[in-house]
Design goal:
Number of helices of chain A: 11
Number of strands of chain A: 10
Strand content of chain A: 15-25%
Largest sheet of chain A: 6 strands, mixed
Largest sheet of chain B: 2 strands, antiparallel
Distance between the termini of chain B: 28 Å
CATH topology of the largest domain in chain A: Rossmann fold
Strand order of the largest sheet of chain B: 1-2
Oligomer: heterodimer
Order of helices and strands of chain B: HHHHEEHHHHHHHHHHHH
Helix content of chain B: 55-70%
Helix content of chain A: 25-40%
Order of helices and strands of chain A: EEEHEEHHEHHHHEHEHEEHH
CATH class of the largest domain in chain A: Alpha Beta
Shape of chain A: globular
CATH superfamily of the largest domain in chain A: P-loop containing nucleotide triphosphate hydrolases
Number of domains of chain A: 2
Strand order of the largest sheet of chain A: 6-7-8-3-9-10
Shape of chain B: globular
Radius of gyration of chain A: 20 Å
Number of strands of chain B: 2
Number of helices of chain B: 16
Radius of gyration of chain B: 22 Å
Chain lengths: ~280, ~375
């Protein structure tokens, strides 16, 4: 199996707070990998490092064998740095989120971030803007009508696949919650990714919706040849769907392995249930 | 339902043609000193500038207040490059120079361009300045961007009045004797063409990207939209058309000076955008004509002493005007058009629902 995403010693420190501490993990092609942990463990921060929203304090993120983000403690952080492996990484590679999306990493957000003034169809079309061949002139004077037409058809096909075709002309924010989540995934798929990062896709869903989501995730993985890396709190979904699981607590990885191993891991149980006082 | 749908687009186009026909008639029958003549000219100019501001503030979500500065650049560029050489000596009488042949010439620029090219150049100069101003300023967000762009506009105005550049800008003296259109139609045609281009841009994939940035910057960037690049595109294009608007403004005024391009001018345009509806091009156009008609024409009678005993005097119309604007802003909180565009279909449906009397109520509650 080919290694698609690799995090090496990723540390993210905000002032004196180490949000992600020396996190190393791998996601292989075709896998569904979950990142779990209690609230505030640093899961979304890790996602934000991968997608270029934050520049890590130290460490490297590689995608498809190439380093896309790499940094070392510099400036003020050089003195403040509280993590490990200082001095291992020498290069400074920073890419803005749009560049990383262009490489083939798409994401959804924990709190839904749809374009609220746009229709469902327009939301998907926006994501296709990145792969456009037209320029400002041809786009303005409608010389790219072939591309526009093709994109629209592609967007409609995509909406059909995720089951949102019947609501294509509705305002994105007028959809029910579950459909908004789906639309966010559809929008991410429109950027033609190879790796899809899902940040709590089942948040706020009832058991039935969660079960539907499980099937949905399987289906899009097979249909679009995706690798999926997700953050999730619904344990039944995580245990059901994941090939492998990483568990972090206070920014540090405390366990990793297949679902069966994680379920019986003492550290994980402690992190989730807390440690009793007499211990 | 399989009933044949009436195509309201045809009505929209017909209305537009009728508008231009009216302008044509106005050109034939209105004397140039008539206030309506001036209102139509100024309305067209302000419509263009308001639409260009709406592209930035309403569609890209960049709250910039530099429009007066870019208008100033456009106005000065147009004036400087179209004053006939024989007139330059009298225009630049305080800043004469001697050329290589030892003759006295007025001002630095001795190049005279045709009007059309000068108008485009006016836009280009504003666009180039916008690019360099945008490099630092567009990193800022919301209020900070507004303050910084406002500052730049004021700096530009101060520089234009600076004696050191007198040979170029004529210092704080007027630029005059440049050619201008003494009819309404050219203003409508140029402004209409520019507004049509902006409308096309907004309809294109770039327009969708702008709206995405307005709605949610973080999500837009995650969808692969290069924020810096697209904000810059919007800023430069908006300034380009503000520059052209400036050139038209210079023509409308016949003489130009840096003095009127203060922040007040920007606020006037912002007011038009807000009254028309942030995110509605047709709203900006309608509001522009209403605003200009109201401030220059309809309320003019209030300035005559004795119309309202004890109250009306020179300047009183501005008091009434401000009150009227407050009322509009209070009752149309999202502007006349909201973020919708003008279409006869919507009006017809609106009228229908008033008569059926049901649907409209529920909508207003929302």
């Amino acid at each position: 199996m080919k290694n698609l995403l690799k995090l090496e010693d990723v540390t993210m420190q905000f002032g004196g707070v180490v949000a992600v501490n020396n996190l190393s993990l791998e996601v292989n092609e075709g896998e569904i990998v979950s990142l779990i942990g209690p609230n505030g463990a640093g899961k979304t921060t890790a996602f934000n490092v991968v997608t270029g929203v934050y520049e890590p304090t130290n460490g490297r993120v590689s995608f498809d064998g190439k380093a896309i983000v790499e940094s070392y403690p510099h400036g003020k952080m050089n003195r403040l740095y509280a993590g490990e492996n200082k001095g291992v990484y020498k290069k400074h590679i920073v890419k803005t989120p749009d560049k990383i999306t262009k490489l083939g990493i798409a994401r959804t957000f924990q709190n839904i971030r749809l374009f609220k003034s746009m229709t469902v169809l327009e939301n998907v079309l926006v994501a296709m803007h990145m792969r456009r061949k037209s320029n400002l002139f041809t786009a303005t004077f409608m010389l790219n009508y072939k591309e526009e037409k093709a994109n629209k058809q592609k967007a409609l096909d995509l909406l059909d696949k995720v089951g949102l075709l019947d609501v294509k002309d509705e305002l994105a924010t007028s959809l029910p919650y579950g459909k908004q989540r789906r639309l966010e995934i559809a929008r991410a798929l429109a950027t033609e990714p190879t790796l899809l990062l899902l940040d709590e896709p089942a948040a706020g869903m009832n058991p039935q919706e969660t079960a539907e989501l499980t099937q949905f995730i399987y289906r899009i993985r097979d249909e679009f040849g995706l690798t999926i890396f997700m953050i999730e709190h619904h344990m039944d979904l995580v245990m059901d769907i994941s090939d492998r699981i990483y568990v972090i607590d206070f920014g540090k990885m405390i366990a990793s392995g297949v679902p069966a191993e994680i379920q019986n891991n003492e550290l994980v149980i402690k992190a989730y249930l807390g440690v009793s006082e007499d211990e | 339902m399989k009933t044949k749908k009436f195509n309201y687009r045809i009505v929209d186009v017909a209305l537009l043609i009728a508008l231009f026909a009216l302008v044509f008639l106005a050109d034939q029958f209105l004397p140039t000193y008539d206030i309506k003549f001036k209102v139509l000219q100024k309305g067209a100019v302000f419509a263009l500038v308001a639409v260009s501001m709406n592209l930035l503030n309403g569609f890209t979500g960049l709250f910039s207040l530099g429009q007066a500065g870019f208008m100033l650049l456009g106005a000065y560029t147009y004036a400087i490059f179209t004053i006939p050489n024989e007139a330059r000596l009298s225009v630049y009488k305080y800043y004469t120079m001697t050329n290589s042949a030892g003759e006295e010439i007025g001002g630095l620029v001795q190049l005279v361009l045709p009007m059309g090219i000068a108008i485009v150049l006016a836009g280009l100069v504003a666009a180039v300045f916008a690019y360099f101003i945008g490099l630092p300023v567009l990193r800022l967000k919301s209020d900070y961007l507004a303050i910084a762009s406002l500052g730049f506009a004021e700096i530009l105005r101060a520089i234009c009045q600076w004696k050191g550049l007198g040979t170029l800008t004529n210092g704080s003296n007027q630029l005059r004797m440049y050619p201008y259109f003494n009819s309404i139609m050219p203003y409508f045609l140029i402004a209409g063409l520019c507004i049509a281009i902006i409308a096309l841009l907004i309809k294109s994939t770039y327009g969708r990207a702008f709206k995405a940035i307005r709605d949610d910057e973080v999500a837009a960037e995650a969808m692969g939209i290069n924020l810096a690049k697209h904000k810059m595109i919007s800023f430069v294009i908006s300034s380009f058309f503000a520059g052209i608007g400036g050139a038209l403004f210079a023509m409308y005024q016949n003489t130009i000076q840096a003095k009127p391009f203060t922040t007040t001018l920007t606020y006037e345009i912002l007011l038009i955008v807000v009254i028309g509806g942030i995110g509605s091009l047709s709203g900006s156009v309608i509001a522009s004509f209403l605003y200009i008609a109201c401030s220059e024409w309809w309320l003019r009678f209030l300035d005559t002493e004795g119309v309202i005993p004890g109250l009306s005097r020179n300047g009183f119309r501005l008091v009434v005007f401000s009150a009227a604007i407050m009322v509009i802003v209070l009752f149309f909180r999202r502007g006349l058009m909201g973020d919708k565009e003008f279409s006869t279909e919507r009006i017809v449906n609106g009228v229908k629902s008033i008569f059926s009397g049901k649907k409209k109520k529920t909508k207003e509650v929302e």
